[in-house]
Design a protein that fits this description.
Elements lengths: L1 H27 L7 H28 L4 H7 L1 H18 L6 H26 L4 H33 L4 H20 L4 H46 L7 H9 L5 H29 L10 H23 L7 H14 L3
Helix pairs in contact: 1-5, 1-6, 2-4, 2-5, 4-5, 4-6, 4-7, 5-6, 6-7, 6-8, 8-10, 10-11, 10-12
Length: about 350
């Protein structure tokens, strides 16, 4: 009975702290930017990265004469952070991340999944005492979640400045994650102090990031909401021909035929209405109002995409000055589609 209790306690301290911290991050997400189903997917993806790291690390150790301690300090951090980062790079490339808050949550979720797999392996393949599990659960596991979140945060911040996902936007975050991981594996302090430091520093960093990101998100919502309302008012105005938008489209008449111009006008209206609805949904979530699924909206998105195809890339570039079509706006439309088309 005592051995069973000890094993159960080891499992708890090895796995629960990092999952509890992930739950705290989700709770602090006042705009509810990340759906629970997506968090579960990221935990699973992180777990797959953990399994792949186990295979790669095992093969490299077997094929080389590198001593385990040296490998864990200088090589394993590079391999493991690259594997975890690859999951996030996929999300960034698909415009699935909009702000630092969701970058932090998704990054931590990937790291948490990696840590759960890693600690589960040791639970069943190594006889370690409770003290070691405390270090692994409160230190190593949180480190995995934290450094992957740091990669996501720094990469997201670089993308906000450059409006593009490039090698240059990824390297600072990846370098920071690898460096912190390697320093932690050196254990310059005692294992207990290293674990305590990680358990205290990561939450403090996340709280700071959440505060900054919430300010940015609130400002973006206010400015873009007003811009969308203004554009929609011009589109619905009885004096449309005399508005800024009307004059702009009239000038484009020299480059595009009438049918294309008509499709461009329809595209502007649909895109703006969807953009307003997406921002409204975010505001409602912040005050705790759930937005019910609306399967009919799938048809609106399909119509918008058909218009994008019919007017072509050149015409889309021509109307780009009138609408918000940057990375963040593509993200929030994707959020709306995922939410309301679920029914």
């Amino acid at each position: 009975m005592g051995a069973l209790l000890s094993h159960a306690l080891s499992i708890a301290v090895a796995i629960l702290p990092v999952l509890a911290m992930l739950g705290l991050l989700k709770f602090l997400d006042s705009f509810k930017l990340v759906r629970f189903s997506v968090i579960l997917q990221m935990i699973a993806a992180g777990g797959c990265a953990g399994l792949l790291a186990y295979v790669i690390n095992g093969q490299l150790l077997a094929a080389t004469a590198i001593e385990l301690r040296t490998y864990s300090r200088y090589i394993a951090p590079v391999i493991e952070e690259l594997l975890k980062a690859s999951v996030l790079l996929y999300l960034f490339s698909r415009h699935r991340v909009g702000f630092l808050v969701d970058a932090a949550i998704l990054g931590f979720a990937v790291g948490a999944g990696f840590a759960v797999i890693e600690n589960t392996y040791f639970l069943f393949n190594a006889q370690l005492n409770l003290g070691v599990w405390i270090v692994r659960g409160f230190g190593t596991a949180v480190m995995h979640g934290g450094v992957t979140a740091i990669f996501a945060i720094l990469t997201m911040a670089a993308m906000e400045r450059r409006e593009a996902l490039t090698v240059a936007t990824c390297l600072p975050g990846l370098g920071a994650a690898v460096l912190i991981h390697a320093v932690y594996n050196h254990m310059f302090l005692s294992p207990v102090l290293s674990a305590l430091g990680m358990f205290l520093l990561i939450p403090a960093l996340m709280v700071g990031v959440f505060g900054r990101s919430n300010q940015t998100l609130t400002g973006w919502l206010e400015l873009d909401f007003d811009a969308d309302v203004g554009l929609l008012q011009q589109l619905n105005s009885q004096e449309f021909a005399d508005t800024h938008v009307g004059q702009y489209l009239k000038a484009l008449g020299e480059r595009f035929d009438g049918l294309i111009l008509a499709d461009m006008l329809c595209y502007l209206r649909i895109y703006t209405e969807l953009s307003l609805r997406a921002k409204g949904a975010m505001m409602m979530r912040e005050v705790g109002v759930a937005i019910p699924p609306d399967p009919a909206i799938a048809g609106v998105f399909a119509e918008m995409r058909q218009l994008e195809k019919s007017i072509g890339r050149t015409a889309l570039l021509a109307v780009a000055p009138l609408v918000n079509t940057n990375r963040r706006d593509r993200w929030h439309l994707g959020q709306l589609e995922a939410e309301l088309c679920a029914g």
